[in-house]
Design brief:
Blueprint: E1 11-18, H1 25-34, E2 39-48
Antiparallel strand pairs: 1-2
């Protein structure tokens, strides 16, 4: 006992939560060319070490 089996250092995970979901392919392309942030960033993990 006492041996380290799994070690995790400085783990980060980010998700994008989109404000509006595009329903048509045309909307997807229009939004790509408009630019801007159409999403909110959610950090699930920031610098987690175990």
């Amino acid at each position: 006992m006492g041996d380290v089996v799994i070690e995790v250092k400085d783990v980060w995970k980010k998700f994008r939560i989109y404000r509006e979901r595009s329903r048509m392919l045309k909307e997807v392309f229009i939004n790509l060319f408009r630019g801007g942030n159409r999403y909110e960033e959610f950090w699930a993990l920031k610098g987690v070490s175990l």
